[in-house]
Amino acid sequence: MLDHIEGDAAICTIPYTVLRRVPVTPEWSPEKRRVIDNIYYGPCVRTTYQVSRRYWEDEELNGSGTSDKNFEVWHPTYGKPGKRGLLQAYNYENYAHELDQLSEADWLEQTIRDMDEVFPGLRPSLETVVVKSWANDPWQCGGVRALSHRPDENQFRDLQAGGQSMVCRGARVAMEWLDAGSNHIRH
Fold this sequence. Notes:
- The protein is an alpha+beta fold.
- The protein has helices spanning 16-19, 30-38, 93-100, 104-118, 122-125, 153-160, 171-179, and strands at 10-12, 44-51, 65-67, 71-74, 85-92, 126-133, 166-168.
- Helix 2 packs across helix 6.
- The protein starts with 9 loop residues before the first strand and ends in an 8-residue tail after the last helix.
- The relative contact order is 0.22.
């Protein structure tokens, strides 16, 4: 097993929530360490429901929607042939955190009730449920950036400080640096 890598530069795709636990020699500059330790990835839970038939289409619904519990629903089998289907619910922030605290059985029951509120009639067609929690995944430790925790230009500057040559690549942070007004993502 590889226990260390040496080099003059690095392209890093490790989420900052995981990177903060990776030993680095030489140590990060204080500015970089502060940003790496404080970049926020909030909880996100995706629940995928496989159904024997796309029952929501009986009501001429397209399988997409939102809930007042801070989740959105997608229908990844929309427009695909066949009668079986998938619905996916993405739960964010506080509600995702609440789900993460439940036992597996309670978690499944709650998410099934939630989907049944958005698209009533789920249970008779339900075949299986698969749940993914990014906050509980040790290789992610969070899944979504909250607007209230948006990186700013000072954080971008601090990531460049300290003389270490590291380029961070990853859609969640890199796109936000671009959105924050930076025209490059070299950190």
